[in-house]
Amino acid sequence: MPIAKRDFFNLLKVSIESINPSQLIRNSVHKQNSSLKIEKKFLFKNQNLIDDLSLNKNVYIAAFGKAAYGMALEMEKIIGHDLCRAIAILPFNHPVNHIQSKIEFFFAGKFNLPDLDSILATKKIYHMASSLAESDIFIALVSGGGSALLALPQNYTQNETHNLDIKLETIKMLVKCGANINELNTVRSSLSQVKSGKLSLLAHPATTIALVISDVIDDPLEIISSGPCCAHSVYYPNEQAQKAVEILEKFEILDRVPLEIRNFLEEKIKISEHVDEKVENFLKNQRVCNFLIGNNTLATMALMNELEKECYSNDFRVLLSNSLSGEARNIGSILAAFTYLLIQIRSKKIDWIQNETKLNDFIRSKIDGLFEFDCDQIIRVLYSKIFMDDNLKEKIFRKKKLKLCLISGGETTVNMSKCQSIGKGGRNQEITLAFEYCFSKLMLNNQYQELDCLFSSYGSDGIDGPTDAAGAYFLYEKNCSNLDQNELSDHLNRHDSYNYFAKKDRLIVTGPTGTNVSDLQILIINF
User: Residue-wise pLDDT tens for the chain (527 aa)?
Assistant: First the structure.
């Protein structure tokens, strides 16, 4: 097995283990005498710590998201006999062990979209939260994927099924247009009875504690699972509706979304900033505290630590970014051109890049004509993290073999709005396919006997789009130049990355991992 492939599968395992939800709960929460203690370092910014969490058979738990199962079971162990009731909404295909537990498990969200099962389970949480007293503690266990599971649409009409259908129609239109997770969740929140802080409003006057595992770039509280316990979002429903309208306008679909949705948003915008008495009382007296216990940074740091153990410390390893975003095929192409550039520099066919403009020019010259894109942000990161590093510059010109590993995380998008015949795949498989297409094309007239190179992008939840794969990987082989460019181009243009990698036996299939901190990318070059 090539060293790059061996190292990659070890790193894949390490990254998933580092964000195990049970362990994240144990790392952040503990019971001391008859009180619950959560470390201050996990507190979201601009929040005041609530540390008087006295337990007296007064704890109620609502868990939702891809990490809900592990989080809920671990919290049940910690709370013990002080737990009164717990409800967990899990992805429809999540495996559950037969164990003794007070937790009521519900399954919902087929194809990562809210469904009638989501509404049924959310109503259970809605009624539980609405019945709490001031002495109660409401614990929300929030993780990525929660937007599809905690779902209760606003009453645009009197028909609950129709309300869900028209909300889904709107969200599907945004997905097809390539809207990112922040844009999707902003629109979702404005159309929901439980998102944007409304869940914590329902639980008032109880104390609300939210333990959050983020799957969103930069960890914005109001966006993760659509911010159900983000108290400050409750105050401005008109502004939220305005943001939703602006997003629909940006993708030129405002006049195509269902009329009931448009009318609802327009009515919300007209409402002044005056809030009703219930909301005003909540904002003055609310006891809501959100803690960030896991995110993409945690996974990438675990990867960096593992690389140090594996002797990459003697060579070169770098964390590029935890905020990788943009069109998936563009990102894959840029990383491929960048990899090709490093190989050319190592072979002394190209000089070291002295400034960002030269890097920009090189990458655009290699990709121009393949896709249209704006690559300034990622090129800026690549230049600052790679070409401004004198240590790498010294090592890359040595005769000694060099092991180089680049790590990144984030979430890209796939724009399918102009595609007439759509295949099967996900954003991680598409990044990898774009990398393979671009890299193999650049390497057509270049053979490197000693090159051992692997690139992969994968979802930490084990699910990439509507497929059973987490992602895929590209492995450079000596016959790389024999890859069928027409076949690669055809699959890429049809967004059919899954079927391409299935044929090549290079899909990454982990099954649902029971956690989610968005996507991870690993580039290994041994030369």
Answer: 889 999 999 999 999 999 999 999 999 999 998 999 999 999 998 888 998 899 999 999 999 999 999 999 999 999 999 999 999 999 998 888 878 899 999 999 988 889 999 999 999 999 999 999 999 999 999 999 999 999 999 999 899 899 999 999 999 899 889 898 889 888 988 999 999 999 999 999 999 999 999 999 999 999 999 999 999 888 777 888 999 999 999 999 999 999 999 999 999 898 766 667 788 889 888 899 999 999 999 999 999 999 988 766 668 999 999 999 999 999 999 999 999 999 999 999 999 999 999 999 999 898 865 555 567 889 999 999 999 999 899 999 887 889 999 999 999 999 887 777 789 999 999 999 999 999 999 998 777 778 999 999 999 999 999 999 999 999 997 666 678 889 999 999 999 999 999 999 999 999 999 999 999 999 999 99
Q: How far apart are alpha carbons 414 and 396 in whole angstroms?
A: 34
Q: What is the 3-state secondary structure (H, E, C) of 295-356?
A: CHHHHHHHHHHHHHHCCHHHCEEEEEEEEECCEHHHHHHHHHHHHHHHHHHHCCCCCCCCCH
CA–CA distances in Å: residue 527 to residues 177, 316, 397, 403, 443: 40, 12, 11, 7, 15
315 within 8 A of 403, measured Cβ to Cβ: yes
Closest CA to 521 of 437, 452, 429: 429
In 131-236, which ranges are continuous DSSP H helix? 146-149, 160-177, 181-190, 198-203
Quick one: CA dihedral 114, 101, 58, 53, positive or negative?
Answer: negative
Q: Look at residues 175, 63, 161, 172 and name the one whose alpha carbon lies nearest to residue 115.
A: 161
For residue 279, which amino acid is it?
Answer: V
Q: How far is CA 138 from CA 84, 122, 349, in A?
A: 10, 15, 63
Amino acid at 386: I
Dihedral angle computed from the Cα positions of residues 85, 90, 94 and 98, in that order, rounded to the nearest 10 degrees: 10
Strand pairing class (452-459; 207-213)? unpaired
First to last CA, the chain: 16
Instruction: Retrieve residue 444's tokens.
Output: 């057509």
Residue that has been written with the tokens 């802080």 in this structure: 197
Sequential DSSP letters for 364-378 = HHHHTTT-----HHH
Q: Count CA within 13 A, CB hemisphere, residue 360.
A: 12
Q: Output the pTM of the full model.
A: 0.91
Token pair 């609530």: residue: 50
| Residue type present at position 356 | E
Q: Is the dihedral of CA 198, 199, 202, 208 positive or negative?
A: negative
Sheet containing 316-324: which strands, arranged edge to edge?
316-324, 403-410, 519-526, 452-459, 471-475, 507-508
3-class SS of residue 455: strand
What is the chain's length?
527
Spatial contact of 187 and 247, defined as CB atoms under 8 Å apart: yes
